[in-house]
Amino acid sequence: MTSAERLSTEQSSLPVRIEAAFALYARPLVRWLRIRGASAMDAEDAMQSAFISLWRNFSSMDNPGAYLHTAAWRTWQQTRAAASRAPGMEPEEALYDIPASAAGPMESAEFHQERWEILQLTARLPERQQAVLAYYIDDAPTSEIAHRLGLSQTTVRSTLRYARRRLAEMLRRPEEADIP
Q1: Which residue has the higher pLDDT, 97 or 113?
Q2: Which of 113, 114, 130, 117 is nearest to 76 (CA)?
């Protein structure tokens, strides 16, 4: 029996269903948060907090994937808000992951500069566009994005189209995008 089947089977015990949800959603959830700018540590913490909340509220869940993403996002937002109130506490380790394809220091520096610019621009998009774009960057199909965010596939495609247009516009006019 696959994780998806164990998750949807009403006869499965709560621990089995939580384990199935973890197998399905944990890694994609961490990647999704990382794409949105969370550090590895913050993404893992937010994911774990979301699963604890899921455990407590699982009996009333219709869509555990959407619940997990919302809970993790809110946890990370609270972490960011707390970090912004403490001087010198803004984690940026997500920007320092060196890709395997980087052949040397120059390529690595260019990669980090491009990634930093894209992350800065993405942060200026509306929240829904950020979420859909993060899944898209992670190669999630529109059906999966819709399911996880609790949206229709039409809404996901439309939101993605607007996000890409806005990013393209900001990249064409960097002086108006005000990239630091």
Answers
A1: 113
A2: 130
